[in-house]
Amino acid sequence: xxxxxxxxxxxxxxxxxxxxxxxxxxxxxxxxxxxxxxxxxxxxxxxxxxxxxxxxxxxxxxxxxxxxxxxxxxxxxxxxxxxxxxxxxxxxxxxxxxxxxxxxxxxxxxxxxxxxxxxxxxxxxxxxxxxxxxx
Length: 135
Known about the structure:
Shape: flat
Structural class: mainly alpha
Number of helices: 4
Order of helices and strands: EEHEHHEH
Strand content: 5-15%
Strand order of the largest sheet: 1-2
């Protein structure tokens, strides 16, 4: 990486996550890098507008529609406790780059990390094969 007029240039084509981490390092705080679990709000309940189901898409949307229909009132997270946790972060000098809010968010992140680790392990030989060799 090199500096240009105070900005950062990242090599390659960074993902949104990479840019988020670079910005977090630069400003010393995560700009909204929190991972939210499911919180008990009316999102999946009466406040959610549902478009009519289209038979042509029933195969690909049925599971999502069923999940949204069944989640209202069963979410593990308390919105008031999430708000309190976010306010706590505002007064924390070394706030984390990302904070998982909710036990389901913690488990989702752990599962994602395990998947990334397994994929990295499976392809590590090919990944490392691109290094220059000593002459």
